[in-house]
Specification:
Layout lengths: L11 E6 L2 E10 L6 H18 L3 E11 L5 H17 L3 E9 L4 E10 L15 E4 L5 H9 L5 H12 L3 H6 L7 E4 L4 H13 L2 E4 L10 H6 L5 H11 L4 E3 L5 H8 L7 E5 L1 H14 L4 E7 L4 E3 L1
Parallel strand pairs: 3-4, 8-12, 9-12
Antiparallel strand pairs: 1-2, 2-5, 3-5, 6-10, 6-11, 7-10, 8-11
Length: 306
Amino acid sequence: MLIGLEVSDDAAVYQLDEHTALVQTVDFFPPIVDDPYSFGAIAAANALSDVYAMGGRPILALAIAAFPEDLDPAITAAILQGGADKVAEAGAVVAGGHTVVDREPKYGLCVTGLVDPARVTAKAGARPGDVLLLTKPLGTGLVTTAAKRGAVVEAHLAAATASMLRLNRRAAELVAEVAVHAATDITGFGLLGHAAELARHSGVGLRVDSAALPLLPGALAYARAAIAPGGLGRNRRYLEADGYVRYHGEIEEALRLLLFDPQTSGGLLFAVAPTVAEEVLRRFAAAGEPCWPIGEVVAGAGIEVR
């Protein structure tokens, strides 16, 4: 067991031989959007993301589902089809699963992947001087909460849905041959929650440039209107306790909220040396893929937001 219960990384890693290790993860949740097919596909993309965060390649998935007894079978089929299609897009297969009866629909995957033990991208390993790179914009929690409250602009929801549907496969492929010191994916704990795990495992501090953060359309407006998911407040209270997150200068309250917004199927966060960061940004630009430098790794502890 290379990575297991002793550390809270994105997935477990179990070495089979000198060149092969298994990457194992599981994730499932209730509907994040109304469309059943999109819900299944987003849940699958979210579960697959943990394998990509570890530097792995998904090969096999088992579905985990809970459905009400009176749910329209067409809705159930659409959820399962959305998940299966997204797994196929990842180059993997759904080989089975398990379903139970529940009043609230839930769907997700247990995913198995493969990785070279020498190329595992764990959360530990970030070094002072490293650049922090993020591959998806923030704000899915705020936008989908606005949708639940009937206050969303449809174009904003469409942009958030498209972002959640996009696999992290291409981003992982673009950094596969460069030296990544540490990596994680941004999901329920928000940007700073997952960044804090990376920092704590690596024994370093972080400096985040709030003006450089990529945001989904409408996300800042919903934050200004105080339309925020409940998990955002929990993330913030935990991370601001004892001054772990510190603010430098005047930072708008709405922008502070976005730092803690729980993401669904968010992007990957990489810590790489400055020269490597330049190469990664060139690769992403050439491939037409988004990637933003949002800060740096520093000596010490805690997160400073400027």
